[in-house]
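Same chain as my last thread, 87 residues:
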Amino acid sequence: MVDVAQLSPFLESTQEDAADALDLPNDSPTSLRSLARLQSEIARRGTIDVLRKGINHGPHHLDVLQRDGVIDRYQWFDQDGMPDFTV
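reply #2:
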């Protein structure tokens, strides 16, 4: 299950154009398609691959992790800029 409350602010702060196009904060057909795409990619490729490589959705490429400068260490930052998830 995708936590929209965490994903939406992350995308807004790191990939504003994609976040606006995906309309995640709202319960719209666009946001439902976006979330379905993310969930299907996780089911098809696995969580780690999606976290590392992101997904393509329409004209947008979504990176769901942000590199922190340390080789092979990734972090998912919350809206306060604090690490929220580390792989």
